[in-house]
Amino acid sequence: MNISPYEQILMTCASEIQRYLIKTGANPADAQDIVQDVFIKLIQADIVLATDKLRPWFYRVALSRFYDLYRREKRYRALLSERFYLIYGNVVNLDNDRSWQLEQALKTLTDYQLGLVTLYYEDDKSVKDISEIYQISEAKVKTDLYRLRHKLKQEMEQNNEDE
Asked: Which residues form the RNA polymerase sigma-70 region domain (predicted)?
C-alpha cells in the first residue's frame, strides 16, 4: 500500500473538517484540538480505513467530539455562573437579570482568569494548590483573584447600567 496518497487524503479531510467545525461554531483552537483527537483515535484504533469510509468516519468522530465539548462547556459555564454568584452574591436564588449580568461578565474573562475562578470557587482548590498548578507564586494567585473579583463586579455594574 502506498502511504503517501493515503496521507494526502487524511490531510485534506482534516483541513475540511477543521473548516467545517469553525463554520459550525467552534473556535479555531478547539477545531484544531478536535481534529488532533480524531487523528489520535485513528492511530489508537490501529486500523486502516478504506478511502471511501475514511471521510464519513472522520466527520462522525469529529462531530461527536465537538458535541461533547459543547455540552461540557455549556454545563461548565452554568455551574461556574451559579457557583460564583452564590459565593460572591451570598444569594441562594439566582434571578435571571443577575445571572445574565454574571454570564456576560464571565464571557469577558481570559482562559487563565476562567481557570482561576473555576479552580478556586468550583473545585475548592486552595491558593497553594492553584499556585502549584500554574507554577506561579501564591501572592500572584491572591492578587489575580482579587483583581478578578473587582473586574467581574465592575462588568456586572456596567451591564446593569446599560440596561
From this structure: 16-75
